[in-house]
Amino acid sequence: MFLNIHVVVVVVLALCTQQLSAREYYQTLRVENGARLGSWGPLEMCPLDSYAEGFSMRVESRQGDGDDTAVNGIRLTCVKDGRQYGTVDSTYGYWGHWTPAMSCRSGALTRFKLNVETASEGDDTAVNNIKFVCSEGDFIEGSGMPWGSWGSWSQICHSGGRICGIQTRVQGRQGRGDDTALNDVRFVCCR
């Protein structure tokens, strides 16, 4: 009897784990102006049946004569049935502090654009800020740094989809070299 219950528990746990890790998405949102340094981290998804309705950023403030990195990471706030249901982030850099979460007045995140400083001779930062469009039409903008320029909007999650996952490209520590931290981000859409 004990063996049968043990087998049932193991099977149920395996199915639950498979369901959480196998959440399906139908569209990937990208922008053209993301920087190219660093490696892509893992795709991280909001829990099943939840969607991103807000975000926070890990931002390093101006360093004066030091090495600036600006935005080091982005964390999505996931909601289900109007309640916060956790947060997810992919890889993020070493510097800065997490900003307070910003959220859509109603609805969920559906598209984005980045403010990116392109490579130059000197101190580069890559991603400096992000803006999102919410499903009800309002815009929310992060409180990043002012350097760089805004690129074009990504595609929108079509067919009523909403952002449900994140993947980031982050440059690791460079030692004595110029650190840029967050270089690019992709989001995925779920229905």
Oligomer: single chain
Number of strands: 14
Domain module count: 1
Order of helices and strands: HEEEEEEEEEEEEEE
Structural class: mainly beta
> What is the C-level CATH assignment?
Mainly Beta
Q: What is the overall pLDDT average?
A: 87
Please give the radius of gyration in angstroms.
18 Å
Summarize the main sheet.
5 strands, antiparallel
Helix content: 10-25%
Principal-axis shape equals elongated
Q: Could you state the CATH homologous superfamily? A: Vitelline membrane outer layer protein I (VOMI)
Structure, explained:
- With 191 residues, the protein is mainly beta.
- It has one domain: Aligned Prism (Vitelline Membrane Outer Layer Protein I, subunit A).
- 10% of the residues lie in helices and 41% in strands.
- It is built from one helix and 14 strands; from the N terminus they run H-E-E-E-E-E-E-E-E-E-E-E-E-E-E.
- The strands form three sheets. Strands 1, 2, 3, 13 and 14 form a five-stranded antiparallel β-sheet that branches. Strands 4, 5, 6, 7 and 8 form a five-stranded antiparallel β-sheet that branches.
- The longest helix has 20 residues, at 2-21.
- The N and C termini lie far apart (42 Å).
- The relative contact order is 0.27.
